[in-house]
Amino acid sequence: MTAGTAPAPRGRRVAVVLAVLLVAATAFLWLRPGGPAADGPEAGFARDMSAHHAQAVRMSFIVRDRSKDERLRVLAYDIITTQSAQIGMMTAWLDEWRAPKADPSGPMRWMGGGHAGHGASPAGGMPGMATPAQLAQLERASGRDAEVLYLRLMIAHHRGGVGMARAVLARTDHPRVRRLAQTMVNAQNSEIALMNDMLRQRGAEAV
Question: What domains are defined for the chain?
Answer without folding.
Answer: 36-201 (1.20.1260.10)
